[in-house]
Amino acid sequence: MRQIKRTIALFLCLGLLISGLLPAQAVQAAAESDPQAQILDTRQLEIAPDTYYNWYDMKLPRGLEKVHTVEFHPSNPHLELIAGTKSGKVYGMQGVTAMAAYYDKPGQRIIAGINGDFYDLSKYGTGVPNGLFMGDGKILNTPDANYAVFLLDKDGTTRYEPIPKLTRTVTIHGETSNITHINRYRENNQLILYTFDYADSTKTNEYGDEVVLDVLEGEVKHGQTMRLKVAEIRKNAGNTPLAEGKVVLSASGTARAVLEGLNVGDEITANFAFPPGYENVAVAMSGYRLIQDGVVLSNVPVQGVHPRTAIGTKADGTVVMIEIDGRAPGFSEGVETSELGQIMKDLGVVNAINLDGGGSSTFIARLPGESTFRMLNRPSDGVERQTGNSLLLVNKAPAGDAAKLVVQPQFERVLTGTALPFKAKAVDATGHPASLTGTLSWSADPEYGTIDESGVFTAGSKAGIAAIEVTAEGLSGSGRVEVVTELTDLKFPDAEKAIDSGATVTLQVQALRNGQEIIADNRLLEWRVEGDIGTVDANGVFTATTESGKSGKILSNTGMSRHP
Question: Phosphodiester glycosidase domain: which residues (predicted)?
Answer without folding.
Answer: 242-393
